[in-house]
Amino acid sequence: MKRHHEADERQRIVHLLVREIGEESGAVEHLDAEDLAGLVSGSLLKTEIGRVENHLLACPDCRRRALAMQEDFEAGVVPILLRRATARETGGRLMGPRLPRRWTPWILGAAAALLAIVLPLTELFPFGSSRRAVTELSFVFRRLGNPQLGEKGAGKLRPAAPGSWIEPGQEIEAAPGDYLEALRADGSVWSLTEGDWSRRDVGDLRSQRLFERAAEGRALLVEMAAEAPTGAIPSAQKPRIIHPLRRIHDLRPPLRWAGGAGEDIEIQVHDEDSGRKLFSRRENGAAIHWPDEVLPLKAGGRYRIELRLRPFVGRPSAEARFEVIEEVEREELAPSLARVTALAGRGPSVLRAELLRQYGLHAEVREELERLRRSDSENVEILVRLKVAYRQLALLREESRTMAIIQKRR
Predict the structure, then answer these.
(1) For 166, phi and psi rounded to 5 degrees?
(2) Beta carbons of 368 and 353 less than 8 angstroms apart
(3) What is the three-class DSSP state of 306?
(4) In a designed cystine with 181, which of 1, 142, 270, 388 is the match (CB 3.0 to 4.6 A)?
(5) What was the pLDDT predicted at 60?
(6) How far is CA 20 from the centre of its chain?
(7) Pairing relation of β-strands 157-159 and 148-150?
């Protein structure tokens, strides 16, 4: 009972605050309750944002009230009170004189019929969208919203997703709120906002070389993505090393494996050059981070991972070898990675995955793309690249499963 009493008292106080703002807005030109509610809830119109922000810069009273309303909005109180306040200001009639109740079913039915007609049309003719032709070959690496890509004059569109290429002559359709970033042949980055292209970064030799190598490898990437996995699919019960494999540049790589989930597993890492065991761990999961107490790997070093199910007698095991790229190659890669981070941010990026692919670091490409897939599971371009990474690492089960998903979504 005490909690209900406190909640009622809180609602009463906020209700008084909303009414106070509404009453004072006409006298001293403070922001009214609707402005503050739109600001706090994020529903303020673009045309109103500037006016509200300018007033808040000059008015400490409204800043204080906005902060108070923000706290109440996060507590889930303000939306209910604002609806009550709006109804009270208009005498409980938001659309003028109230219609007889017998008309309500007819009005609702007409509204439903209108929506049934209009909503499908919005798919064919998006309101407020704009369509622009692309004049230069562009590699998409970031998007917000759902910008669409299609052939000039054609009605069929597909998402302009990270990892896709935009050919000269194709068209991009962008609705309000859509955003897209793409790399071009001179290394510059262009952003598309509501149909208008603008240069965001002038580019340099490193990003230009990244684009050139990506453009050269397009045909091979498509060809490898279309090839069926070769060889026998390993048993799901047998453990397999997933990462690291082949070549890496990370000196503290995570260790991942498949199979034996929930089992008591012993995993060991050995230095092949010195014959020394670096560490041994017992786990029952599917991954571990490189232990903090263990020294990092060496550039140019060769290593072996062993994974065994306990008890050892008669149980399957797994083994894999990998190497860290030489210091010269690491020094060459480092500034390019820094450049990509400046363009695409520190999170997972198809641009970073493409750079790692060009250096043959397919295990780290797979790591990058799997993180991207978790955030954009419908992106076919990411799946295509991931399928190729699995092929390069001879992960047949993962390659086969990814290819089946690609075929369903195309």
Answers:
(1) -110, 120
(2) yes
(3) strand
(4) 142
(5) 80
(6) 42
(7) antiparallel
Query: Which 3-state string (H, E, C) describes 76-105?
Result: CCHHHHHHHHHHHHCCCCECECCCCHHHHH
Range 54-66 burial, b when 16+ CB lie within 10 A, else e: ebbeebeebeebb
Return mean pLDDT, the chain.
80
Alpha-carbon span 301 to 100, nearest angstrom:
83
Q: What does the buried/exposed string (b/e) look like for 382-406 if buried means 16 or more CB atoms within 10 Å of the residue's CB?
A: bbbbbbbbbbbbebbbbbeebbeeb
Residue 382 contacts residue 369 (beta carbons within 8 Å)? yes
Angle between helices 205-216 and 327-344 (to 10 degrees): 100
Whether 302 shows a pLDDT value over 90: the answer reads: yes
Measure the CA dihedral 26/29/34/36, to 10°.
-150
pLDDT digits (tens, 9 = 90+) for 329-367: 999 999 999 999 999 988 899 999 999 999 999 999 999
> Taking a C-beta distance cutoff of 8 angstroms, is the pair 172, 131 a contact?
yes
pLDDT digits (tens, 9 = 90+) for 138-167: 999 999 888 888 887 666 788 899 999 999
Q: How far is CA 115 from the centre of its chain?
A: 31
Confidence of residue 16 (pLDDT cuts 50, 70, 90): low
Residues 34-43, mean pLDDT to the nearest whole number: 76
Task: Give Cα 60 distance to the centre of its chain.
Answer: 38
Virtual torsion, Cα 164, 325, 363, 257, nearest 10 deg:
-170
Q: Are the C-beta atoms of 317 and 279 separated by less than 8 Å?
A: no
Q: Which residues face 199 on adjacent strands?
A: 190
Question: pTM, whole model, 2 decimals?
Answer: 0.67
User: Tokens representing 404?
Assistant: 């089946």
The pLDDT value recorded for residue 3 is 47
Give whole-number Cα distances, 41 to 24, 30, 33, 69, in Å.
21, 19, 12, 10
Q: What is the pLDDT of residue 386?
A: 96
3-state secondary structure of 248: strand
